[in-house]
Amino acid sequence: MGAVAVLVSACTVGPDYQRPDAPVPAQYKEAGWKVGEPLDAIDRGAWWSVYKDPLLDDLEKKIDISNQNLKAAEAAFQQAEWIVAQARASFFPTVDLNASAQRSRTGGGSISTTGAGRSGFLSSLFSTSASASWVPDLWGKIRRTVEGDVASAQTSAGDLASARLSSQGTLVSDYLQLRM
Predict the structure, then answer these.
(1) What is the model's pLDDT at position 8?
(2) Which of 126, 137, 124 is nearest to 10 (CA)?
(3) H/E/C letters for each residue in the chain?
(4) Cα 52 from chain centroid?
(5) Residues in the chain with pLDDT values less than 50
(6) What is the pLDDT of residue 40?
């Protein structure tokens, strides 16, 4: 029985994603064009420091603090990371613990200011419960969900880097135009 569970758990729904090849001509009509080679992984660093302007350096430091587009992109990236963490949590069992307490008085006629003469029944009710559940990823649904969420988080990280670079470039461009 255990061997069957192991074999079935290796099954996944759908094939692994293969990025399709986009047809690219070997040569373009316009002379001098070549296929783009993006270098997204390289660190951009403080590229504006080539201008050796302390005021520009100071303004660039303030972009991460005050630019609302960057704040929105950072929030979207953080949300994407939390979604990945939540999806990965589905691989593990969940445990639910609950406890409650109730106290009540029933019956009794009149209430005196001294508290004497009260009658009735005082009851206390305490309860606890616990449950645990685990859904094995037999068909790979959880695994595929995590893969999709990781891809979305990577996209969000790229959006954040693009927003940061765009803000920095806009600031440098505007600053240089104002200085001239």
Answers:
(1) 53
(2) 137
(3) CHHHHHHHHCCCCCCCCCCCCCCCCCCCCCCCCCCCCCCCCCCCCCHHHHHCCHHHHHHHHHHHHHCHHHHHHHHHHHHHHHHHHHHHHCCCCEEEEEEEEEEEEECCCCCCCCCCCCCCEEEEEEEEEEEEECCCCCCCHHHHHHHHHHHHHHHHHHHHHHHHHHHHHHHHHHHHHHHC
(4) 37
(5) none
(6) 73
* Domain locations along the chain: 53-90+139-180
Quote the pTM value: 0.66
User: CA 147, CA 62: separation in Å to the nearest integer?
Assistant: 35
What per-residue confidence (pLDDT) applies to 55? 94
Q: Would you state the pLDDT for residue 120?
A: 72
Quick one: pLDDT at residue 27?
74
Residue matched to tokens 């449950």: 131
User: CB-based contacts of 125: which residues, under 8 Å, 6+ apart?
Assistant: 101, 102, 103, 104
Distance of alpha carbon 82 from alpha carbon 78, whole angstroms = 6
Res 42: pLDDT: 78
Instruction: Report phi then psi at 98, rounded to 5.
Output: -135, 145
CB distance 168 to 60 below 8 Å: yes
Angle of the 68-89 helix axis to the 54-66 helix axis, nearest 10? 50
Q: What is the pLDDT of residue 178?
A: 93
Amino acid at 67: N
